[in-house]
Known about the structure:
11 helices; alpha/beta; Rossmann fold; binds NADP nicotinamide-adenine-dinucleotide phosphate; two-stranded parallel ribbon; seven-stranded parallel beta sheet; 286 residues
Amino acid sequence: xxxxxxxxxxxxxxxxxxxxxxxxxxxxxxxxxxxxxxxxxxxxxxxxxxxxxxxxxxxxxxxxxxxxxxxxxxxxxxxxxxxxxxxxxxxxxxxxxxxxxxxxxxxxxxxxxxxxxxxxxxxxxxxxxxxxxxxxxxxxxxxxxxxxxxxxxxxxxxxxxxxxxxxxxxxxxxxxxxxxxxxxxxxxxxxxxxxxxxxxxxxxxxxxxxxxxxxxxxxxxxxxxxxxxxxxxxxxxxxxxxxxxxxxxxxxxxxxxxxxxxxxxxxxxxxxxxxxxxxxxxxxxx
Length: 286
Ligand SMILES: NC(=O)c1ccc[n+]([C@@H]2O[C@H](COP(=O)([O-])OP(=O)(O)OC[C@H]3O[C@@H](n4cnc5c(N)ncnc54)[C@H](OP(=O)(O)O)[C@@H]3O)[C@@H](O)[C@H]2O)c1
């Protein structure tokens, strides 16, 4: 039961730990040697392998000697734009599927492919018709994955210990309530995203699954709640950030399909996590 986690980063490591504990033989991949070396203390193997380069994946496949039971594509484009998206998401996926030929493949995509702006609920059968180049590449990758009987996980914004853009901006005083503040913010705690992916790799049939906590809040309400809870000023209103890489959207992402598989998040909402995940709040306060 060998599983390759291609992209052993913030989310990938949390997933690797769950699968290792569930008796999978985990091999994690990173882009750089430094990141692989930093994970040397983990109880699973982590190797550097640039999945966007066909020759690297071919070499890795030869070294490995047999086809893995599963691959989860969890690599991210970092701060890169459309070119990087093409390399990491599309080329990376094609290379992994064609040269490693896993029995199961899970792709970590994004809820940004829902370009809706009306604030209504979206499910996996809602139109996913983005206009930004970055999100179009995600859609192209999704189609390739589905054509090869894989699973597409559309993830909402990931937060957790050591990473919450919202909290960090709030505590540093950089936060701005954009426009009228009514845009819905969809998120998922890293540990819940990891447990969802573990379930998808083990139990889901081919198809699309939204991975969100299913309890979005308007941006204004989040900052207002944080201001009251921590007795700090509410952030000022400001313009909408139109430069957002994956586009400005406004929707509520349903997780009913994932819940239908029996998945339940540990943190029902971002505000619940702020109450319960003390380490996350401490780190964000600095
Ligand atoms: N973060 C979010 O809010 C969010 C929202 C929606 C979807 N997602 C998706 O969730 C997934 C995981 O995100 P994350 O936040 O955990 O990412 P992350 O912390 O940035 O980690 C990314 C990992 O991918 C590796 N990587 C990057 N390019 C690679 C390549 N060409 N070949 C092999 N490995 C490569 C990185 O290695 P190095 O450290 O060596 O660079 C790192 O281990 C991604 O698919 C991302 O698009 C994230």
